[in-house]
Amino acid sequence: MQDLNILLIEDNPADAFLIREMLNPGGSQDFRISHAGNLKESFKLIKEKRFDFIISDLGLPDSYGLDTVKSVIAKINHLPIVVLTGYNNEQMGNDALSIGAQDYLVKGTINAEQLHRSIRYAFRRKKSETELRASEVKFRTMVETSPDGVVTLNLDGAILYASKRALEEHGYLKENNLAGKKFWDLFSENDKLKVIKRFRDIEKIGVISNEEYLMIREDNSQFYGELSASLVKNEMGNANGYIVVTKDISQRKKNENAIIKYQKKLQSLVMELNLTEEKERRKIAVELHDHLGQNLAMAKIRLAALKNGNGHSENDDNYTEIEKHISHAIDYSRILTYELSPPVLFELGLVEAINWKLEQISENDDLKTNFIAETEISGLKEDYLILLFRSFSELVDNVIKHASAKYINVKIGIHNTVLIIEIEDDGKGFNPDSIYSSIYKTNKNGLFGIKERLEYYNGKLEISSQLGKGSKIKIIIPVISK
User: Fold this and answer.
1) Of 6, 236, 249, 268, which residue is the least packed, with the fewest Cβ within 10 Å?
2) How many CA atoms does the CB half-sphere of 220 hold within 13 Å?
3) Separation between Cα atoms, residue 75 and residue 36, nearest integer Å
4) pTM for this predicted structure
């Protein structure tokens, strides 16, 4: 701490001499001291020389008390300053600290050790103050240039500070218009209690992040805001407030709602296309059954009559061959009819259609099936009926193609206005997350596609599966009657 340029401002020569002796005992030159007898002289010296430290009496001929400190700091605020006060002016010394002095000493009680210690302390404190001020400037610059609003609160939720962006978000012109308000008063009535509860949670968990609430402006208009907040603690580790970051996400919510609206519109269009496709399937199935099927049946009858009325046995083999082909054509047209649009679905209903489908699987695919209808199901809306049967058919077809299963158990029932179809198999199982993979998304008949179509009717697909342990899939959907 030696080799410093010190400015001593003291109008009393005797006091000035004592200070010099304490700093440079026996005429040493540890410190280079310049002496001014009043404030005016000190300002002149400040212009002429570079100083590292200032020691100033508070009572000068041309300045007194705190005005002296204010004047010196205004002239050269980057230097540490120690003030000298009389016996009865300790309060003034404390007041001097509050406006920027680093320490004060009471005349008549000072010794060399105290003075040297005070200089060291003042340097450290000034350095800390300078660093803190720089940090505060940096922080405020970051806060004021942030695209998000920043607010500080005390533990009661009262607003202590609000950044420019925070004021803009809530439609306030000046910071003092928000100061002292409760932070939760910036939220809609529906969200206010939720926010208060979350701030109580912060006291336990320390932080909350990216939570969405409906906030209000000064004119009572509302906007969607995103909230993050953390607990602030003092040097002792005790909580003393909150720092909050808010973001106006109105445009984002608007975009999200537009996307959702578009997705619903697209989903509705897909469902309409599916229904149109199903109607065309049914129309073709009717044509096959009523015209092609009947014509083939009539041809078979006529052929049989012709065969019986013809006595030439050499033509019997030809008749038999033609009859065989007609029979195959009849069988195939019947299969096509059921694959396109099974008449049993519209004539007898969902339960009988599912039962027919399982019987076909048992006959043709070497799979054991079991079917339980827990409740009677009738009077369903036609497009809803088609959706359920197609979804069921696609699920059991997937079991046949991919699961390597030996049995399929199916259960259907209505529980509290909710229809549930449960399909269980003992196959090789799969990872349920794979329904979101690209292969399923691009496959119209994949689980992802079924899930999307069910969601259109507020339904869902519940999947439980593990590799090597089979699968259980539930179609869960509200009942929609005609």
Assistant:
1) 236
2) 1
3) 15
4) 0.48
List pLDDT tens digits, range 369-388.
999 998 888 888 888 888 89
Whole-number pLDDT of residue 438: 44
The DSSP symbol for 133 reads H
- Report angle CA 51, 54, 57 to the nearest 5 degrees: 145
Bridge partners of 380, per DSSP, are 481
How does pLDDT run across 32-88, given as a tens digit for each residue?
899 999 999 999 999 999 998 999 998 899 998 889 989 988 888 888 999 988 766
213 vs 227: CA distance, rounded Å? 7
Beta-carbon-side half-sphere exposure of residue 122 (alpha carbons within 13 Å) = 25
Containing 278, the helix (H) or strand (E) segment is: helix 250-287
Residue 65 dihedral angles phi and psi, to the nearest 5°: 65, -140
- Determine the longest span between alpha carbons in the chain, in angstroms: 158
* Strand ranges, E, within 234-353: 239-248
> What's the pLDDT score for residue 196?
93
DSSP secondary-structure letter at 158? B
Count the Cβ atoms, other than its own, within 10 Å of residue 130.
13
Burial-class residue 56 by CB neighbours within 10 Å (0-12, 13-18, 19+). Answer: buried
Is 288's pLDDT higher than 70?
A: no
Do 422 and 410 touch, CB atoms closer than 8 A? yes
Q: Which residue has the tokens 């199901």?
A: 377
The token duo for 259 is 């996307």
Cα 46 to Cα 34: distance, rounded to the nearest angstrom: 10
**Per-residue pLDDT for 265 more than 60?**
yes
DSSP of 404-447: --SEEEEEEEEETTEEEEEEEE-S----GGGGGSHHHHT-TTSH
Structure tokens at 426: 């003992």
Cα atoms in the 13 Å half-sphere on the side-chain side of 61: 9
